[in-house]
Specification:
The structure holds two protein chains of two kinds. Chain A is α/β, with parallel strands linked by helices. Chain A has helices spanning 22-25, 68-74, 111-123, 143-149, 168-174, 188-200, 234-237, 248-255, and strands spanning 2-9, 14-20, 33-37, 45-53, 58-64, 81-82, 84-89, 101-107, 127-134, 152-157, 164-165, 181-185, 205-208, 224-227, 230-233, 240-242. Chain A has two domains: 2-89, Beta Barrel (Elongation Factor Tu (Ef-tu), domain 3); 101-255, 3-Layer(aba) Sandwich (Rossmann fold). Helix content of chain A is 23%, strand content 32%. In chain A, helix 5 packs parallel to helix 6. In chain A, 51% of the residues are buried. Chain B folds into three domains: 21-123, Orthogonal Bundle (Fumarate Reductase Iron-sulfur Protein, Chain B, domain 2); 138-233 and 387-452, FAD/NAD(P)-binding domain (3-Layer(bba) Sandwich); 237-384, FAD/NAD(P)-binding domain. Chain B has helices at residues 15-18, 31-38, 48-52, 59-67, 71-79, 85-91, 98-101, 113-123, 146-156, 174-177, 186-198, 215-220, 251-260, 285-296, 315-323, 426-429, 434-454; strands at 138-142, 161-165, 202-204, 225-228, 234-235, 248-250, 277-281, 301-305, 327-329, 332-340, 343-356, 363-367, 373-376, 379-382, 386-387, 401-402, 406-407, 421-423. In chain B, the strands form five sheets. In chain B, strands 3-2-1-4-18 form a five-stranded parallel β-sheet. The longest helix of chain B has 21 residues, at 434-454. The chains are: A alpha/beta, B alpha/beta. The interface between A and B is large, with 46 and 55 residues. Bound molecules: flavin-adenine dinucleotide (FAD) and FE2/S2 (inorganic) cluster. Flavin-adenine dinucleotide binds at residues 91-92, 142-148, 165-168, 173-174, 178-179, 208-210, 229-231, 233, 255, 285-286, 289, 314, 389, 391-392, 425-427, 431-435, 437 of chain B.
């Protein structure tokens, strides 16, 4: 069992938790994720590691209450326990400090996994700009954390309550597009739209994929994605991939497997 | 007197009913049936059955005890050589091992050794104490499948302090996430694991060696030796068009959703989705288990498509599958998956034929040109093999691997290319059997013990 050390409600939908998990904190790096189960009958869901503290042996996660599991997790309080918390999984983000000028683009809860990557790049001396997008200003999380580590910070909201009214890509189009690297993390459609633009300017763009996962160790193949025409397992080959190579259409298709009612539960036992 | 050429028939659930639930198919012998079956054993002077057993269980000896109704003693005899008898009695391919060698085969049925093994294991309920004197040596075992569990148990009874690290949230490896409930009830696996814990073995779940910690970390942390029993958990990608369509699963995903995440139960939060017609690709135990599981989840038609002629799965399971209405399409192979709206809709198949390969004598096969045809289906489960997972080998410099990422280990001692690091089971051999994984775990434990016994005292 893993204790919740700290809980911060970031907005109506999004919560941050710091969890005591010594086997995860020991070696985790930006870009990696964990898989948790809230309770005995719970499903396994992957969440990106937003931050970690090796001395305190803790790992910070941020999640949006969208499904059953994240809703149940949101009901837990400080000092409660989570059933399972396994990791770190996946590869650390390919952080290459030769990229002098980096643009981070985060959409929705995708802002959370973007944070440790930009932080690490900043610490390595890169120039870091960020574009953060969300439904409203309130939905844009970690604003203060990002302002400490970004040279320029831009916001895009659906309702114009913060920054520009529109999409992150509207802002992207207005930047000089002279970056060495773009890191885009958010909904698939956002990452696809970003790569559609950056491709024209040939700016290397990394994206982070978060398909349905079970084990997170390469065992089940449920997380497979097509990258550069080849089948890859997001959990062990990713989660970060070259955005130009990703088959976004297939990713979007596969994400909808369990959307319909046509799901089987048996009454046996 | 019964005809001694015939074995005492085992009771089973009725096929038309059981293919709708997850209850164990084989009911098992009663005491009377077990005693009666034991009397068929001729107690051969030179028992061939023992030679057929990879861990050399003294079979006639334990059967003698059943004749005398000393069931607990029978169990203890098995346990001297086999740490997971309740599992082995249920899943070993006995027809190729002990029972295949039984002298009674010549004139009738072999003695039902597996069923007797199962009987005494299910009968025995004493919790054993570990009385071994502690020797202050710490061993780390990676993976809690049959290889890891056996290695851990063997070392614990020799006085070692053993910690098992398991990536998943439940121990047991394939026994927990792969082999279905109706063949190996999870309660049985839990019992066997509890017995190992009872010997003092510590199992830490949710730790992925190679990610959470490396092998170097383990040695640095004071473990004197490491055993890798990480299995062959990486599905082989067929590499044919359309493989990523929706409702095409690798068997591991399908079986994990059902076994580990209990997708068949109402209160499970992990769903599984299957259609009316399910097509399983492959012919091993994994394929047969997937097919029978799909049937139980309510599929109307379930087909197993295999490119050769002889299904390599365990004999009893093939019989059970046929009884449950699974259809086999042999000498056929998929070449392409065809989709509609992102979902699989049909498989393009091609007929194959066997060739007698001159070198190995093993029958190879080739596709028959122009024999392609379309086969409509709603769901596909791919059970076309497993390879080794690279998580450990990719971060362990000096760990020699061979053929497709398997970990190299000495065939006698199971030592890897790194001193004090041993490996065994599917991680070394590729997908094989429970008993061969156990044999490897046992050999490694003996080699580790020998190493420390011969080690000059360090000051
Ligand atoms: C569906 C199915 C049916 C089968 N039926 C039969 C049968 O009837 N009879 C038979 O004899 N055999 C059968 N087999 C094969 C048999 O189960 C395997 O050969 C056997 O389990 C291998 O044992 P193992 O200990 O080497 O590996 P596994 O059982 O695979 O266990 C490996 C364990 O290591 C863990 N692990 C992996 N990597 C790491 C890591 N980096 N850190 C920590 N832990 C890790 C895994 O999570 C797993 O729990 C079947 C297999 C399947 C999949
Ligand atoms: S989540 Fe199972 S292989 Fe990636």
């Amino acid at each position: 069992m893993y204790r919740i050390i700290k809980k911060v409600i970031l907005n109506n939908d999004v919560t941050m938790m710091e969890i005591h998990a010594p086997f995860v904190s020991r070696r985790c790096e930006p870009g990696q994720f964990i898989i948790l189960r809230v309770d005995e009958n719970g499903e396994r869901i992957p969440l990106t590691i937003t931050d970690y503290n090796r001395e305190k042996e803790t790992v910070t996660i941020i999640f949006q209450k969208v499904g059953l599991t994240t809703k149940k997790l949101g009901l837990k309080s400080e000092n409660d326990y989570i059933q399972d918390f396994a990791g770190p999984l996946g590869n650390p983000a390919p952080i290459n400090i030769k990229n002098k000028r980096v643009l981070g683009i985060g959409g929705g809860v995708g802002i959370a996994p973007l944070y440790p990557q930009i932080k690490k790049l900043k610490e390595a001396g890169c120039i870091t700009d960020v574009i953060l997008g969300g439904k409203t200003g309130e939905h844009i999380i970690l604003k203060n954390n990002f302002s400490e580590i970004s040279d320029n910070i831009y916001f895009a909201t659906d309702d114009g309550s913060l920054g520009e009214k529109g999409f992150v890509t509207d802002i992207l189009k207005k930047t000089e597009l002279s970056y060495d690297l773009v890191i885009a993390i958010g909904p698939l459609i956002m990452m696809k739209s970003v790569t559609d633009i950056t491709k024209k300017y040939n700016i290397k763009t990394n994206v982070s994929l978060n398909p349905i996962m079970i084990d997170g160790t390469g065992m089940c193949g449920g997380c497979r994605v097509t990258v550069g025409g080849k089948t890859k397992f997001a959990c062990v080959d990713g989660p970060d991939f070259d955005g130009f190579e990703v088959d976004f259409k297939e990713c979007m298709e596969r994400q909808t497997v369990y959307d319909e009612k046509h799901i089987c539960f048996m009454g046996a036992k | 007197m019964n005809d001694l050429r015939k074995k005492v028939q085992i009771k089973e659930l009725i096929s038309a009913e059981r293919n709708k639930n997850f209850e164990e198919v084989v009911i098992g012998y009663s005491e009377e049936e077990a005693v009666s079956e034991s009397q068929r054993c001729l107690n051969c002077k030179n028992p061939m059955c023992v030679k057929g057993c990879p861990v050399n269980v003294p079979i006639p000896d334990f059967i003698e005890k059943i004749k005398e109704r000393k069931f607990n003693e029978a169990y203890k005899i098995i346990k001297t050589e086999n740490f997971l008898p309740a599992v082995c009695g249920r899943v070993c391919p006995q027809e190729k091992q002990c029972e295949g060698n039984c002298i009674r085969n010549k004139t009738g049925d072999s003695v039902s050794i597996g069923k007797l093994e199962r009987f005494v294991s299910d009968y025995y309920s004493v919790n054993e104490e570990n009385t071994a004197e502690k020797n202050n040596k710490k061993i780390a075992v990676i993976g809690s499948g049959p290889a890891g569990i056996t290695c851990a148990g063997e070392l614990a009874v020799k006085g070692y302090e053993v910690t098992v690290f398991e990536a998943l949230h439940i121990p047991g490896g394939v026994l927990s996430y792969g082999i279905p409930e109706f063949r190996l009830p999870k309660k049985i696996v839990e019992n066997e694991i509890d017995k190992i814990k009872n010997l003092g073995v510590k199992i830490i779940t949710n730790v992925i060696i190679g990610k959470s910690m490396t092998i170097d970390d383990l040695l640095y942390d004071g473990y004197d030796s490491v055993f890798i029993g990480s299995g062959a958990g990486l599905p082989r990608i067929m590499g044919i068009p359309g493989e990523n369509l929706k409702e095409i699963y690798y068997a591991n995903e399908f079986l994990t959703r059902v076994n580990l995440m209990k997708a068949y139960k109402k209160d499970s939060e992990t769903p599984i989705k299957i259609g009316k017609t399910v097509t399983v690709i492959g012919g091993g135990n994994v394929a047969v288990d997937s097919a029978r599981t799909a049937k139980r989840l309510g599929a109307e038609k379930v087909f197993i498509v295999y490119r050769r002629e002889e299904i390599p799965a365990r004999e009893e399971e093939i019989i059970h599958a046929r009884e449950e209405g699974i259809e086999f399409i042999l000498l056929t192979s998929p070449v392409k998956f065809i989709g509609e709206n992102g979902f699989v809709k049909a498989v393009e198949m091609v007929k194959t034929k066997l060739l007698e390969s001159e070198k190995s004598g093993k029958k190879d096969f080739c596709e028959i040109e122009g024999s392609n045809y379309l086969f409509e289906t709603d769901t596909v489960i791919i059970a076309a093999g497993q390879t080794s997972n690279p998580i450990i080998s990719s971060v362990t410099p000096g760990l020699k691997i061979y053929g497709n990422g398997k970990i190299f280990a000495d065939s006698e001692t199971n030592q890897t290319s790194i001193k004090k690091v041993y490996a065994g089971g599917d991680a070394v051999t590729g997908a094989a059997t429970v008993i061969s994984a156990m044999e490897a775990g046992k050999k490694a434990a003996l080699a580790i013990d020998k190493y420390f016994k011969n080690e000059p005292e360090t000051v």
